[in-house]
Amino acid sequence: MKQFKAFGLFTFLLFTVMNVNAQQAISLYGGAIPGAKPTPVDYIEETTAREDKVVRVSKVTKPELYVYQAAKPSGAAVIICPGGGYGILAIDKEGHDVAKKFQQIGVTAFVLKYRLPSDLIMKDKSTGPLQDALQAIYLVRKNAASFGVDPNKVGIMGFSAGGHLASTASTHFADMKIENQENISLRPSFSILIYPVITFGIYTHAGSVKNLLGENPTEQQKKYFSSERQVTAQTPLTFLVHANNDKTVPVQNSLRYNEALVKNAVPAELHVYQEGGHGFGLNNKSTKDDWFERLKNWLQANKIN
Question: Lowest CB count within 10 Å: 12, 117, 135, 269, which one?
C-alpha cells in the first residue's frame, strides 16, 4: 500500500510538469510489475526502423504511458494501444502520430507502451498485455483531475493486435488482474478498434495467437481471447474501421465483433473500406475519405467530445 501511495505522489508531481509534447513518460506501475520474472541481462528493449520508416519497439520490460494533454481539453481521454502482432509495437504510426491528432481536437491521449508477451519475463505471458491495459485505465481514472479528464469519458483504442488488446480490455474489465484497492471501474467508457484482431478462431491472425498463447493454445484460451464471444450488454460502445481487402487480419474480425455488439444492444459504428489492406494507420491511401473525420463525428454524436 505504501508503494501505491508513494507512486500517487510521484505521478501527481510528474503530471504538473508534463508538457503537451509528451517529452516524458509515466511508469505504469511505479514499482513491482505483477506476474513479472527477473529480466535476463540480455533482454533489452529495442527500437528499430526499416525501409518502410515504421518505428518498431520490441522487448518491452518497463511499460509506460506517454501523455498528450490537449491544450483545450474537452474532458475526453483515450488510451492508445499500438499494433504489431504482439511481437513489436508500431509506436509512432499507431501511437504517437494518432495521439497528436486527438490532441488537436481536445482529447487528451495516452500512448501505451505495453509489455509484449514473453515467457522470459512473464510467469503467464498471456496476461501481461491485458494487465498493462487495465493498469493504464486505472491510472488515468485515478488521476483524472490532474489531467483535466472526465473519469466517465476514458476510452481505449487499438490497431491490429493492439485492437485485440483494446477489445479484450473492453470485454474482460471485470476480470481483475491488477491491484485496485480503491475499486476504480476499469471498464472503458468507449472503444475504438482499427483493423483489429478480434477472433482467435478461423479468421484470426495466426502470429498474434502464437505470440500471445504459444504454439498449442487450449480451446478455453482461444474462447477467452475471442472477443466476439465475450461481448455482453456491458461492453462499451464501439467505433470500428477495417478494409475489405485486408489479407493480414480479415474483415470478418470487425464484422463479427459488430454483430455481437448489435446482438447485445451495444451502440456501434462500423466503417468498411473497399480497399486499404492492413496497417494503414491514419492514412488509407486508397480513398479520399478520412476515417478520423468519421471518428470525430462519432465522438460528437455520442457526446464524448
Answer: 12
